[in-house]
Amino acid sequence: MTSTRSRTDRRRFILDATAAIACIVAPPALAAGRTYKPQNEDTRVHRELCRLRRREYVDGGTNCIYARQSGGKDAVIRVDGSKVRCQAEYQCKRDK
Fold first, then answer.
1. Would you list the domain boundaries of the chain?
2. pLDDT tens column, 24-82
3. Residues near 46 by Cβ (< 8 Å), separated by ≥ 6?
4. Cα distance between the two ends of the chain
5. C-alpha distances in angstroms, 89 versus 9, 75, 82, 83?
6. pTM to 2 decimals?
7. Burial zone of 36 (CB within 10 Å; 0-12 exposed, 13-18 middle, 19+ buried)
8. 55 contacts 86 by C-beta, under 8 angstroms
9. What is the CATH number of domain 47-93?
10. CA–CA separation, 65 vs 71, rounded Å?
11. Would you state the pLDDT for residue 91?
């Protein structure tokens, strides 16, 4: 009975020793994740497509009202001439 018990104890000891050595030798994963951030900030102006929604003739000029591609606030361009045709579309500055 003691020989089977000692064999079991020996196997248990070898298993525990192997697990302990594996935990000590393996380096812990302590590195933090990094996100990419460019050195220089992006200072360019972002633009989107604005399409002519309607024209309003007001005193002394024309208001050209454009719908933004992103669906934000309409862009309004005031033209002093009363007989001026508005562009069908143009690249307007993107709202933030």
1. 47-93
2. 776 666 666 777 777 777 778 889 999 999 999 888 889 999 999 988 899 999 998 87
3. 93, 94
4. 80
5. 84, 11, 19, 18
6. 0.55
7. exposed
8. yes
9. 2.40.50
10. 13
11. 94
